[in-house]
């Protein structure tokens, strides 16, 4: 995770290319894993059921615990940022997939000034279909600004506090143009979140995105959840399994270590960077929570 111009940083298009099909498939993989973990009580999320059907296939406890740690860790950082800025900020979720954070933050009265999501247009279209079809998803968006209706068409949802944009993170000009049409404010403190996103981009493409984020906003923080130690046996098996599914980890060379992850941020415009592995994160989780499993 990286930060710039924040006094006390917390730890930190189009999809026509046939090579992107495997990457889009990882959205379903992650959503199914989260849906199952929620169904067996690892954390509370009443909204994910509207986006993902419950699979008959049970997930191993190790997978459930891994997703629990991931969700808990990102949420801790997100809420720390919101409290630090007193919600006078914006959040941009890069490669958001079927994420439900907007609805959960609304329930907790922790919405930022505006919450943005970006993903492939094909994924956004699916998500918008579910929002249209489920009043439990559309009503909370309307309730935030009852005096006006929200725009929901094509690859875009735009409202006063929430926007979902269909764009390719590798095409920064088009992505930025679409965000600005949805009133992205570069003067507001901004939190950018990327969960297993950058690894599917080439090092040059991810560097451009990281640099754009560092240079665009006056005050910003970047949370990146991603693989490390990919040179070991487990990492090699992971890469090979994904290749068999026609999903290439184009950015795997930046995932060699915690240090390589930090250096990528520091060399592309960020003033400070901090990194921990999931074992350290898991050991820091509330013992009462861990003890439930």
Name the features.
single chain; 293 residues; alpha/beta; nine-stranded mixed β-sheet; 11 helices
Description:
- Keywords: Methyltransferase, S-adenosyl-L-methionine, Transferase.
- It catalyses: [phosphatase 2A protein]-C-terminal L-leucine + S-adenosyl-L-methionine = [phosphatase 2A protein]-C-terminal L-leucine methyl ester + S-adenosyl-L-homocysteine.
- Pfam families: LCM.
- One of its GO terms (cellular component) is cytosol.
- It is an enzyme of class 2 (transferase).
- The structure is a single chain.
- With 293 residues, the protein is an alpha/beta fold.
- It has one domain: Vaccinia Virus protein VP39 (Rossmann fold).
- It is built from 11 helices and 9 strands.
- It has a 9-stranded mixed β-sheet, with helices on both faces.
- A hairpin with a 3-residue loop joins strand 5 and strand 6.
- Helix 1 packs across helix 2 and helix 4 packs across helix 5.
- The chain is globular, with a radius of gyration of 18 Å.
- About 4% of the residues have low confidence.
Q: How many DSSP E strands? A: 9
Relative strand content: 5-15%
Distance between the termini: 28 Å
Oligomer: single chain
Within CATH, the superfamily carries the name: Vaccinia Virus protein VP39
How many domains? The number is 1
Largest sheet: 9 strands, mixed
Tell me, what's the shape?
globular
Biggest sheet: strand arrangement: 4-5-6-3-2-7-8-1-9
Return residue spans where pLDDT drops below 50 for at least 5 consecutive residues. Answer: 4-16
User: Please, what is the average pLDDT?
Assistant: 88
CATH architecture annotation name: 3-Layer(aba) Sandwich
Helix proportion range: 40-55%
Might you state the CATH topology name?
Rossmann fold
Q: What is the alpha-carbon Rg in Å?
A: 18 Å
- Broad CATH class: Alpha Beta
Q: What is the structural class?
A: alpha/beta
Instruction: Please trace the helix and strand order, writing H or E for each element.
Output: EHHEHEHHEEEHEHEHHEHH
Helical segment count: 11
